[in-house]
Amino acid sequence: MSRLEIRDLNHAYVSDKPILKNINIDINEAGVIAIIGPSGTGKSTLLRCINRLIQPTNGSIIFKNNDVANVKGKPLRELRRQIGMVFQEYNLVERLSVLENVLTGRLGYMSAWSAWRRNFTDKDIKRAFELLDFVGLSDFATQRADSLSGGQRQRVGIARALMQEPAILLADEPTSSLDPKTSVEIMELLTQLANDKGIPTLVNIHDVNLAKRYAQRMIGMSGGKVVYDGPPDGIKDEHLKTIYGGESWLQ
Ligand SMILES: Nc1ncnc2c1ncn2[C@@H]1O[C@H](COP(=O)(O)OP(=O)(O)OP(=O)(O)O)[C@@H](O)[C@H]1O
């Protein structure tokens, strides 16, 4: 059985205006899987369906023998805490320290009382320090999040997602707010964790060359449908024309 099975997934924010159209994707493997496609084609909507920030109109998303698209309450919370999410704008709590931000990744595992009191265990704190070391921010643990650069913030966002011990990681345009060099560093980090920690990592990304450089599989979307699903070196100009339309930009 696949780690994630998306079957006949449809979503419309407004009835009769479908955004996702019959999406079928199987994720079996660890490593980076890049999702490319023009603005507005539904890439973010797809990731938001997978972690149930939105409820899809219909279809199923089978993860850990449950249908994420159709569970509620405690079972949904238990599934969601195993789905890590990394955001374009980092979504950190700016006034908290780097360490505290990483620890918030653990909140989904704690009782409401412990979470409210921020009662993190010694084990959690040790792990947060280990993850800060992994993302190269050991020296920044006590600094406020708002004192960091964009690349450093994204590293905190990645450490926070790993704090959830995710079985799958979703990254929604994690490099779109970063300069080209920092974007490469963040993609390297995501690739390293996806491979070394064995986590399938779905990355929405606009930069096709960056995607090809780091992804082991690419999913091309256009008009709310999957129009390519295969290896990066299988993507030819013909596919890019189908995905993005036109060809004048293909120089
Ligand atoms: N909450 C919402 N309510 C209504 N429409 C929405 C909502 N969120 C997104 N949309 C619309 O759904 C479509 C797909 O948006 P989505 O953000 O998923 O695309 P995307 O491929 O991720 O685009 P981008 O690459 O620009 O982020 C767009 O037309 C968008 O305007």
Automatic annotation (TrEMBL):
Any one annotated GO CC term: plasma membrane
Topology with respect to the bilayer: Peripheral membrane protein
Molecular function terms, GO-annotated: ABC-type phosphonate transporter activity; ATP binding; ATP hydrolysis activity
Top enzyme category: hydrolase
Ranges where the ABC transporter domain occurs: 4-248
Location within or outside the cell: Cell inner membrane
CDD domains: ABC_PhnC_transporter
Keywords linked to the UniProt accession: ATP-binding, Cell membrane, Hydrolase, Membrane, Nucleotide-binding, Translocase, Transport
Record carries keyword Hydrolase: yes
EC number: 3.6.3.28
Family classification: Belongs to the ABC transporter superfamily.
Protein's UniProt name: Phosphonate ABC transporter ATP-binding protein
Taxonomic placement: Bacteria, Pseudomonadati, Pseudomonadota, Gammaproteobacteria, Oceanospirillales
